[in-house]
Design a protein that fits this description.
340 residues; alpha+beta; 8-stranded mixed sheet; 8 helices; 35% helix; binds ligand DP6
Amino acid sequence: MYRSQPDLPQYKASARAGSNIAFIKYWGVADPRLNLPLNNSISMTLGALHTTTTVEWDTAGRLGVDQITIDGERAEGKKAERVTKHLDLIRHLAGDRRYRARVVSRNNFPMASGIASSASGFAALTVAACAAFKLSFERVQLSAIARRGSGSASRSLFGGYVEWERGRNDETSVAHQLFPAEYWNLRDVVAIVSTAEKAISSQSGHVLALSSPFNTARIDSLYEALQEVRTALTLRDFQRLGPILESDALAMHAVMMTSRPSLLYWQPGTIEVLHAVRRWREEDGLPVYFTMDAGPNVHLICEPDIERDLLKRLQGLSGVRSVVTSGPGDGAAVTDQHLF
Ligand code: DP6
């Protein structure tokens, strides 16, 4: 087939990545430069909440700086710096520092919804930027690269149920899939109680974890907790999975609250949802457990049979502004590669 040859090769690709919700949390860094975590973490990659990113390396040399657009708005300041730093890493890996990039990224969930966009964002950025440079990395190597942008992004490279190994160095701190998305249709029902941008980013929070007297206790308890989650996933045993994921979310927030300075992400609406979940479980026998990230919104984890009931119940809580839901989905992938 004849294809017309443009003047310059096009270095452009698009990729899509799902966000993820952790059952055993990543909280605390051993090495902030490489984002090497203090502990392994396990998450479910979300199929319905994702980021799509197109990266075009400007081979014509028109751009003086990287041009980054997120959800239709030009990124500036710290947000832009963080993306440029990640692009610098990929330029370095490509052995070609000449080109600036045009990056257009879109979340299918509102960025201000309090759902982590950095996991899906940095996973999609990594895959698109590497594909646009025609770098053929293995998925596990892409996981290591994504980790440098945002720790939790390392997990979004894989679909379904994923464990990120703490590792010892840049090469070994990577994620792998435990089970594919089809293995178990768990649901993440996210009760959004506040859409305000968080005052302290997870990035700064990870460094503070070490200042909490509870941090060591949490880390010491994780060997067993991780094993319990792996077993519960293997057996698809919800009654075994629920208590442990709820307990680790509370342990992580205990570390956050007792670090110096203290991080208090909960809002009144958060506490309303936490109590409601406990009540529904204890009084009505509803099999549902909660987890939370570095923010006030509450993720309710359940099986599909009670999802509808939960949605209705959440609508009855005054502090809940909106609800979004997702099941497990696939790992980050190239959606479009513009060839020469
Ligand atoms: C609380 O460093 O991945 O969600 O700073 O937004 O990039 P960003 O997040 P990241 O930390 C995520 C921490 C967490 C727990 C988790 O997802 O494991």
